[in-house]
Amino acid sequence: MGAIPSERPSQESELRTPLHAPSLHESGLKHTSGEALYVDDLPAPQGLLTGQVIASPHAHARVVRRDARKALALPGVHAVFFAQDIPGVNDVCPVRGVHDEPLLATDEVHCVGQAVAFVVAESAALCRKASALVEVEYEVLPACLTIREAIEQNRFIPHPFFPTHHVIRRGEPEAALMAAPVRIQGECMTGAQDHFYLETQVSLAVLEEDGALRLWSSTQHPSEVQEKVAEVLGLGRHQVTVEVPRMGGGFGGKETQAAGFAALAALGASVTRRPVKVWLNRDQDMEQTGKRHPFWARYDAGFSEDGQLLALKAELVSDGGWSNDLSHAILDRALFHMDNTYFLPNVEVAGRVARTNQPSNTAFRGFGGPQGMYVVEEILNRAAERLALDPAELRRKNYYREVPENQTHYGQAVEGNRIPRIHAELMASSEYQRRRAEIEQFNATSKWTKRGIGYQPVKFGISFTTSFLNQAGALVVIYADGTVQLNHGGTEMGQGLHTKMRAVCAHELGLPVEHVRVMTTATDKVPNTSATAASSGADLNGMAVKAACEELRSRLRPVAAKLLQVEGQPERVVFSDGKAFVPGLAQRALLFEEVTRAAYASQISLSATGYYKTPDIGYDRMTGRGKPFHYYAFGGAVVEVEVSGLTGEHRIRRVDILHDVGSSLVPTIDKGQVEGGFVQGVGWLTCEEVLINDKGRLLTHSPDTYKIPALGDTPEDFRVDLLQRAPQDNTIHGSKAVGEPPFMLAIGAVTALRHAIGAFGPPRTEVQLASPATPEAILRAVEAARTVPR
Ligand code: MTE
Ligand code: MOS
């Protein structure tokens, strides 16, 4: 089977394989029936206690006094922890060498929701009672709540190793701007977004022998949870084991921010010597965790009369919240995606992270990419309106071209650019031109309802931009009866990683998928892992699984060759569909089980680890040059909307997506990722609005005030296709990452909305649409368009 060229699915299909074939999510039926086990569904260990965070009610204050005596006097209350009760390091900052995120506040609190104390009691109700009795006295200090205030006060989070200002520059943007016939200047903002995973943050900690701990955590990053728990308790990492059964969604919100809650549960368990679970309710989760970074941008762009983008200068500032978290890496990715699919000949993009008195903002699907891309798309939309050009055509004119016009602003060549192909295929299949003309006609006669169509191409870089994180491991265990347990370093959050890894493993060993069981992710099976993030879960872990299986196959081949009477010619043995055989030989095929039993009897090891690291990537932040990405994923979307000029409400009438996932490992899973990513992007851009009051308190902390897209908000006609015949070199079986890139296709909805809103005004109306484009924002934009002089 190893002889089969994996980049060519057509040849593979001669042998039965689960790869490149549609299949259900491996837990899909269990998700539906409720049998899938999440952390809170695990059987409660004997003596289980509940832990709860006592959070700061102030955005910024000095902690003057704390006293837990009254709470501790309450029967059933086992412990109350303050900063001074932490035996190890009071810090859970995820960035190596930075210690700016105390697990429990010391002398100052920096946002509403920051953990000040941790109470452990017999029940959640008792925890609440005890929390009310814990006395913490604050002296309120002035708070900085917005990016604007932070800029005025010069409050930025310094980069731990590099200048705080990240600048990427090419050509002569100032001179090119001066010479440009058309200038587009302005500012824009994108908003925060709550992750709204269905399963809120949760961890269960159990004390084992000799002070060791075992945790079950809903985290995308079990190794970091292990690391932080060990540091907080002053233990070696060998004393801490972290397991992840599955997550009910992560979306980036459990990349770093599960660690604090896990560390508190572990602290509680190690001191009370009883199991402790921390499970946030929705309001607590929304108040205590960070969100997608809001970004502010100021830009100055120069165009030719026919819509060629000649020069761009842009300055970005993100709202990092009160501490580092991953803000600098997220800013980097925003800057790396300011070009999207466009060649920028003269460019300077620069960015900084503002420090505000907000919960520390964190990873969220796209990791800054959407925020960076939004800026260039806003500029292109304004240029199209000003120049009265079709925005799709204007975009096409600016695509990356052949060498040397295929170089990004940071110097990586855009190889295998599939955007021109996606553009052509999607324009044809969606009948963009015809529908655009029809919409113009509709709008000419419809007074209060207008329609719009928008096209959005996407290019997204795949790899962790912190290059060393691009590594993964696997442990494949074959039992003598021929069944397999698959362990890999990635976590399952609904994205279908386990389904893909099972397909890869079954393919490599020539087994039906039913013979392969994917085990819960555990740090004692695969150590030192990276977060399942940056869309690279399948890319990295898939290669590691493949490597482990190749090793096992190479051990089994000689055994099978002997049994098949071709001893000494192991390369002739093929494993497929649960059998081992030599093609063309009369000798009957062996069952895989016969081979594994024989291997066991011959004292051959039936377990192996696999390891993978992405080759040849790196970026130099000082020079702003390098190759941060292994490759790019591409996609395109055409979105049609209808807007009511009376209420500002809109409907998405139709969406056509053509997305590039290389040779899809499991097409049904990938299609689901494209649909989900797009809809989540629409949520960010149109209905999800995070609001705080003037004291920095979150107003939108539950679904009655925070609106995520519902079924009724999904496109009425939703056509998603995966780009065919598009294998990618040097990836797992020719596939490409899919988790984040489709999110940004949703920017097409903004372009469509602008088209519809502009139709309320005279030709060449430059639409002023805020983000998110809620009904209020749309109505304001419609009003502004209506009053543009004709
Ligand atoms: N899909 C589901 N259903 N649930 C999730 O939490 N997270 C997204 C994406 N798709 C997510 C999801 C994010 S932010 C990332 S980085 C990737 O999945 C992570 O998984 P992968 O690397 O296996 O694609
Ligand atoms: Mo995804 S934001 O990289 O977890």
Structural class: alpha+beta
CATH superfamily of one domain: Aldehyde oxidase/xanthine dehydrogenase, molybdopterin binding domain
- From the alpha carbons, calculate the radius of gyration and give it in angstroms: 27 Å
Number of helices: 20
Shape: globular
Instruction: Count every beta strand, where a strand is a DSSP E run of 2 or more residues.
Output: 29
Family: Belongs to the xanthine dehydrogenase family.
Protein name: Xanthine dehydrogenase, molybdenum binding subunit protein
GO molecular function: 2 iron, 2 sulfur cluster binding; iron ion binding; molybdenum ion binding; oxidoreductase activity
Keywords: 2Fe-2S, Iron, Iron-sulfur, Metal-binding, Molybdenum, Oxidoreductase
How does this structure look, described?
The N terminus is likely disordered. Among the domains are: 169 residues, Aldehyde Oxidoreductase, domain 4 (2-Layer Sandwich), CATH 3.30.365; 228 residues, 2-Layer Sandwich (Aldehyde Oxidoreductase, domain 4), CATH 3.30.365. The strands form seven sheets. Strands 3-5-1-12-9-10-11-20 form an eight-stranded mixed β-sheet, sandwiched between helices. Strands 7-15-14-13-8 form a five-stranded mixed β-sheet, sandwiched between helices. The chain has a four-stranded mixed β-sheet with strand order 16-27-28-29, sandwiched between helices. The protein is an alpha+beta fold. Helix 11 runs parallel beside helix 19. The structure holds ligand MTE and dioxothiomolybdenum(VI) ion (MOS). Belongs to the xanthine dehydrogenase family. One of its GO terms (molecular function) is 2 iron, 2 sulfur cluster binding. This is Xanthine dehydrogenase, molybdenum binding subunit protein. It comes from Hyalangium minutum.
